[in-house]
Design goal:
Length: 473
C-alpha cells in the first residue's frame, strides 16, 4: 500500500495544502493499492509562481545547457525503468510487453526532444530581418492516465527544449507512475522551479492552470470535452493551446487487401493499449463483397485474443483502468446491441472464468451503420465496429464522416491505390499496411481531435513565439 503525500514545487517535495485523499487501484484485482493526497488551487498557484520565477533565467539558458539537462533527465528516468514498468502493470493494467515498451518510451521522449533541439535553429534570416524564436513563457502540461509517464516526459522535455518552465498536472489516477518520474527528474539536478508537478483534480488544479494569467501556454492530452473546457478557460488570457484529444479512427480495408495481414493488423489497431488508445482504429471499413470472409476471419482471431491478467505474457488486453471506465464500455456494448448492430464476438460482462477485475470481452460488432452511437462516439475500450461499404467513394465518405480526425489506417495490395485514398482522408496521421510511430514527425488531429501538433520540430515550435527583428543592426 503506497501513501503518496507529496507534490513537487520549486525543487522540493512538499506536503500539499489540499487535504483530499484519493484511492489508487490495481484494475486487475480491484484492490486499493495506494492513497494520494491531492493538491488544490493554492498549490497550483504556488507552482505557477515558482515556474514564473524560474523562467527569468531558464529562458536565457543556452542550447547546450538545455541539452545537458535533457541528457541527465533521460538518464535518471532510464535508471528507474524497472520500477516504472512495475507501476504501469500494477496501476494501469498494461500487459507486460506493452508495459515494458511504455516504460522505455518515457526515457526515449527525453532523447527525442534533445535530438530535435540539437538540430533546431532559433534564429533565421528573412530578407534583411532576423526572426528569433523565443520561449513563450510558463507552460501548463496536463496529462491523461493512458500513458501518464510518457506524456509527462514528452511534454516536459519539449517545453524545456524550447526554454519554457512548466507546471505539470498529471492524471490523479496515475500517481505511482508520477511519483517515480518526479523522483527521477529531481535527481537529474534541474534548477528549482523549472518544472513543478502537482497531482490534483482536473476541475481544481487543471482548471486553475487553464485560467491562470501567468501561464502562457497549455499543452493538454485528454478527452475532447475537457479540451473544449480548457480552450474556453484559456480564452480570457489568450493562451497558446495545444490539444491532443480523442478519435474514432477508420481502418479502411480495400477490396484487394490480403486478409491474412489485414485482420491481425485491424485487431492490433483496435485493441492496442487495452483499447484505451486515442489512435485506436475502431471503425473497420470492409468491402461489402468480401464482408463474410472478413467477418469469419476477424471473429476467429478475436476469439483467440486473451483479455485477462496483464502479467500473463499471453494477454493482449488487460483490464480497463477503472470501474467507471469498465461501466462506460459496458454501456456502449449495450447501446450497440439496442441500436441493432450484430455482435460478431464478445459482448457484455467479463471474459469467461474471470470474476473480478475490470476486464472486458474483446468485442466486435458488425452490420454497423456510421450513424450509430458506437460508430460516432469514442468508447475507449476493446469494442470494434465493422461497417460495410459498396465502393471506394463510399469508403472515403464514411471514413471522413466523423467529428474526429486523429489517425486512419489503409490496407491494400496496391500502393498507388492506397496513396490515392490517403490523399483524401482527413486525419493527422495515416498508416499504410502498418502500425508504426516516428517521434520526429508531427502528431495531432484534424477537426475535434485537437489543435496543433506535438513531436519533432512542429512540436517544439508550439512552445515558441517568433519575434521579427528589423531595422539597422
Ligand atoms: P480527461 O479529459 O478526463 O482527463 C485528462 C486530464 O485532464 C486529467 O489529468 C484530468 O484530471 C484533467 N482534467 C479534467 N477536467 C479538467 C478541467 N476542467 N480542466 C483542466 N484539466 C482537467 O481524459 P482521460 O479520461 O484521462 O483520458 C482519456 C481521453 O484522453 C480519451 O478521450 C483519449 O482519446 C484522450 N487521449 C488523447 C490522446 C492524444 O494524443 N490525442 C492520447 C491519449 C489519450
Amino acid at each position: 500500500m503506497q501513501s503518496i503525500d507529496k507534490i513537487y514545487i520549486d525543487g522540493e517535495f512538499v506536503t500539499p495544502h489540499g487535504e483530499e485523499m484519493f484511492d489508487l487501484f490495481n484494475p486487475a484485482t480491484e484492490q486499493v493499492i495506494g492513497r494520494v493526497r491531492l493538491a488544490d488551487e493554492h498549490d497550483a498557484n504556488r507552482a505557477v509562481a515558482a515556474a514564473k520565477r524560474a523562467f527569468a533565467s531558464f529562458s536565457r539558458t543556452s542550447k547546450s545547457e538545455r541539452l545537458d539537462m535533457l541528457q541527465s533527465m533521460g538518464n535518471a528516468v532510464a535508471a528507474r525503468e524497472d520500477e516504472l514498468y512495475e507501476a504501469i502493470v500494477e496501476e494501469y493494467g498494461s500487459p507486460v510487453v506493452r508495459a515494458r515498451w511504455m516504460a522505455k518510451y518515457a526515457q526515449t521522449a527525453m532523447a527525442e526532444a534533445a535530438k530535435t533541439l540539437r538540430q533546431y535553429d532559433f534564429t533565421r534570416r528573412i530578407n534583411e530581418s532576423e526572426v528569433v524564436m523565443q520561449p513563450v513563457g510558463v507552460a501548463g502540461l496536463i496529462t491523461p492516465w493512458n500513458a501518464n509517464a510518457h506524456f509527462i516526459c514528452n511534454k516536459l522535455a519539449t517545453a524545456m527544449a524550447a526554454g519554457c518552465t512548466a507546471v505539470i498536472k498529471p492524471s490523479e489516477m496515475s500517481a505511482i507512475q508520477t511519483r517515480i518520474v518526479t523522483e527521477a527528474l529531481h535527481e537529474a539536478g534541474v534548477p528549482a522551479g523549472v518544472f513543478n508537478i502537482v497531482t490534483g483534480r482536473g476541475d481544481v488544479v487543471g482548471a486553475t492552470m487553464s485560467a491562470h494569467p501567468d501561464i502562457a501556454k497549455i499543452s493538454f492530452t485528454g478527452s475532447t470535452a475537457v479540451g473544449k473546457t480548457i480552450l474556453r478557460a484559456g480564452a480570457d488570457t489568450l493562451k497558446r493551446i495545444t490539444l491532443e484529444l480523442g478519435g474514432k479512427s477508420p481502418f479502411i480495408v480495400l477490396d484487394d487487401a490480403n486478409f491474412e495481414e489485414a485482420v491481425p493488423l485491424a485487431l492490433q489497431a483496435g485493441f492496442m493499449n487495452n483499447g484505451q488508445a486515442c489512435i485506436a482504429g475502431t471503425r473497420i471499413l470492409v468491402p461489402q463483397q468480401r464482408l463474410a470472409e472478413f467477418e469469419m476471419r476477424i471473429r476467429a482471431a478475436a476469439e483467440k485474443t486473451q483479455s485477462g491478467d496483464p502479467r500473463d505474457p499471453a494477454t493482449v488486453i488487460g483490464p480497463m483502468v477503472s470501474e467507471k471506465q469498465w461501466n462506460r464500455v459496458q454501456r456502449y456494448i449495450r447501446i450497440g446491441i439496442d441500436e441493432g448492430a450484430r455482435l460478431l464476438t464478445g459482448g457484455e460482462g467479463r471474459p469467461d472464468g474471470l470474476k473480478s477485475g475490470w476486464f472486458v470481452r474483446p468485442t466486435v460488432f458488425t452490420d454497423v451503420h456510421n450513424d450509430m452511437t458506437i460508430a460516432r462516439e469514442e468508447i475507449f475500450g476493446p469494442v470494434l465496429s465493422i461497417i460495410a461499404y459498396r465502393d471506394l467513394e463510399e469508403a472515403i465518405a464514411i471514413a471522413n464522416d466523423t467529428t474526429y480526425g486523429l489517425q486512419a489506417y489503409v490496407v491494400s495490395a496496391d500502393a498507388a491505390k492506397a496513396r490515392e485514398v490517403v490523399s483524401r482522408i482527413d486525419a493527422g496521421r495515416v498508416m499504410i499496411n502498418a502500425i508504426t510511430h516516428d517521434p520526429a514527425v508531427p502528431f495531432g488531429g484534424f477537426k475535434q481531435s485537437g489543435i496543433g501538433r506535438e513531436m519533432g520540430t512542429m512540436g517544439l515550435e508550439a512552445y515558441l513565439e517568433p519575434k521579427s527583428v528589423m531595422g539597422t543592426f
